[in-house]
Amino acid sequence: MELDLLTQVLRAVFYTFILISVFLLLGTYLRARFKVFQKLFLPASVIGGFIGLILGPIVLKEYAIVAVPEHWITIASLLPGLLIVPVVASVPLGMTFKSGDKSSGSSSSNKTLIPVLMMFFMLAIISASQNFFSLLTSFSFKNFFNYEGIYPTFGTELSAGFAGGHGTAGVVGNLLQSTFDQPYWNTAQGVTTTTATVGLISGILIGIILINIAARKGYTRFIKSGSKIPVEMQTGLQKDTITQESAGTETTNSSSIDSLGFHLALILMVSGMAFGVTYLFKKYDILILNLIPEWAYAILLMYLVWGLMQKFGLAWMVDVKTKTKISSTLTEFAVVAAILSLPIQAVFAYILPLTVMMVGGLALTVALAYFLAKRFFTDFWFEKSIVLLGTNTGVFLTGLLLLKMVDPDMKSPVLRDYSLSYSINSIISFIVFPLSFTLLINQGFVSGIGLFALLALIFLGLLIFTTRKNKGAANV
Questions:
Q1: Mean pLDDT across 331-348
Q2: For residues 177, 180, 184 and 190, what is the CA-based torsion angle, rounded to 10 degrees?
Q3: Mean pLDDT of 18-27
Q4: Could you say which of 15, 102, 103, 259 has the lowest number of CB atoms within 10 Å?
């Protein structure tokens, strides 16, 4: 009997992945076929996920066009929290820290370091400001407008969705379910998915509008008004076989193990170690350590494994492109699953504070991205502002997309500064994120987040002031 039950569960999981795959392919087709999706630059995973949600039992209930069993939807709601563990675990794998060119001296290093630090703090300030505003909105609705049902962490979804993207919905769900055992985890995951979708669409649309205005005013360095976006970027398809890029390098011989299989096995092994460590800490109720989520242990363990591989001369076995393709693939499935299982009725219960939170957060993000970049950068300030806007309303690729619109050939150093600052910001965010949830669930208040933003802004101001003062003194 137990074997039959296990077989049924495994079949249900397998069928759920098949269902997700169908909607992922449908999203790919719709993106390539219809202009509306091309102009919004919506990923296939988002399109497919919403098609599944609209046609499925959550929206249409007994009239569902895609009538799938309820337990498939339950499995889909659990997948983002599980898949995000190997996605996060893969981050340190293949990471290198290149030192600056020694022949160029310290001044060259400073020229690289200063803009990277400036952009890092700007990313942190915007994200922290989003958190402060959204949690203040949550606090206001709960205490001044007597809005019932607002859970302790409501508000964190704005920055998680805007600055984190759809993949972060799995992080939120995983944290609240497995680490803090909160019953509202699925609702919070759904709210994060909602903010991520609104942020992605709004960020791209506003970004395109701002780029057109900036091109007319002469703010952009590399494009003029009326410049066209490449067809490949619009459709999401790379038809030209000459320009198609390789998905990675074979680091193992397939007579032993396929290179893709090796990378996936390595990532899943470390993920399994993380689940094992979490289980032990919870079983023996070790304080503090039992509150850290699996994905946080996964990233720490991968740093250890990658460090050992480098120490024993095995770094050549890891191909960064292959690793990235695996994490990107898992993210695609996680995004479709999160949207497909979106608890839309629960999310609509928070529609008023959620709308205020998203509209206000969006306006704040646009204003800060424009002001900070124009105030503190002298070279390529608009290109940097559009990157700040893109990544704080979507994901890294959204910022990259908007940057490619204003710098098609990537002639500016913005991509370098952006990539490095985003990497630093992501690592620190993985550490801070669980701590903020711990404070909020234990009735912590939002002032700590606001204080962080203020201190970061002061530090940034002092950094810029000192740099400019030194430059001025050198020119005298």
A1: 91
A2: -50
A3: 97
A4: 103
Q: Are 391 and 407 in contact (CB under 8 A)?
A: no
pLDDT digits (tens, 9 = 90+) for 393-428: 987 778 888 888 888 777 888 888 887 788 777 777
Is residue 232 in a domain?
A: no
Residue 99, in any domain of the structure: no
Q: Which domain holds residue 380?
A: 2-90+111-224+257-468
Say if residues 53 and 340 touch (Cβ distance below 8 Å): yes
**CA torsion through residues 227, 376, 116, 160, sign:** negative
Residue-level pLDDT at 142: 87
* pLDDT (tens digit per residue) in 125-171: 888 888 888 888 988 998 888 887 888 889 889 988 998 888 788 88
Q: What pLDDT, on the 0 to 100 scale, is given for residue 293?
A: 81
- Taking the C-alpha atoms of residue 320 and residue 125, their distance in angstroms, rounded to an integer, is 30
pTM of the model: 0.80
Amino acid at 323: K
Residue 117 lies in a domain: yes
Is residue 437 within 8 Å of 180, Cβ to Cβ?
yes
In a domain, 238, yes or no: no
Q: Which one-letter amino acid corresponds to residue 133? A: F
The count of domains in the chain is 1
